[in-house]
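job 3f2a | input accepted
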Amino acid sequence: MHVHFWPDDYVVVAGLQAQVKSARFFASGEKINFEQDKYRVRLTGLPVEAPDHPVTTIALECEAEPTQDNIYVRKEKPREGA
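job 3f2a | predicted structure (82 res):
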């Protein structure tokens, strides 16, 4: 995955249909902590500023070929107060 920047110390990928096995910065190989539910993968503990410019590459190792379905998230994810 290619990321230009993130808002704090995390970044989210919505609608990833494959189970993530590991995450790391591609350039350094440094591991990245993550949590995954059926709607998103949240990569946590990132440095406040992206380490590479103009784009940081994060390698996600998945159990299957990764596909993304944001329409599934929009239709299926419960919305609080909606």
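job 3f2a | The longest strand covers residues 56-62.
job 3f2a | closed
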